[in-house]
Write a structure and sequence with these properties.
Elements (H helix, E strand, L loop, with lengths): L2 E3 L1 H6 L1 E2 L2 E6 L2 E4 L11 H5 L7 H7 L3 H5 L1 H4 E5 L14 H35 L2
Parallel strand pairs: 1-5
Antiparallel strand pairs: 2-3, 3-4, 4-5
The chain binds protoporphyrin IX containing FE (HEM).
Length: about 130
């Protein structure tokens, strides 16, 4: 059974010995984890009482990091609270499109001159 965590509750748990983090509209109690966090306690402490989704995603946390979350889950964040939560938008796909386009472009940049060079030598040796 899942609890609903209100904005007031989120804001009430911003002390190191009782600390809630809001990620992807879910609330996690990171009190026990905070001292072990590889990124340090300060970065997490500065996200108290607000939506930490963007900060968490900007770091590009690993699957191992994400796998720690279920154990710390407290409940879903209340819908329609004053706090605007961000949905999980990952910016990787659009970046990928750009880099494949650039890669295809640079392949052409190699193959066109190589093809011309090949054509020239074919003409030199087998032509007139
Ligand atoms: C609340 C749940 C969180 C968990 C379970 C978690 C877990 C982890 C883990 C396991 C790592 C090691 C690298 C990796 O596996 O990705 C890491 C690194 C890091 N985390 Fe978090 N993290 C949490 C929240 C945050 C938040 C809210 C921030 C905010 C800014 C943050 C900032 C960082 C930074 C900057 C690193 C990089 C440390 C380095 O490479 O030196 N983390 N975190």
């Amino acid at each position: 059974m899942s609890r609903i965590i209100t904005l007031d509750e989120l804001k009430a748990n911003t002390k190191k010995d009782s600390f809630y983090v809001l990620l992807h509209e879910k609330v996690y109690d990171v009190s026990k984890f905070i001292d072990e966090h590889p990124g340090g306690d300060e970065v997490i402490l500065s996200e108290g009482g607000q939506d930490a989704t963007e900060a968490f995603e900007d770091v590009g946390h690993s699957d191992e990091a994400r796998a720690l979350l279920p154990d710390m889950f407290v409940g879903d964040f209340e819908k329609g609270s004053d706090l605007k939560t961000k949905s999980a938008v990952r910016n990787a796909p659009s970046d990928n499109k750009v880099s494949t386009a650039v890669e295809q472009g640079s392949n052409l940049m190699y193959f066109v001159p190589l093809g011309l060079l090949g054509a020239y030598f074919a003409w030199r040796f087998y032509g007139a």
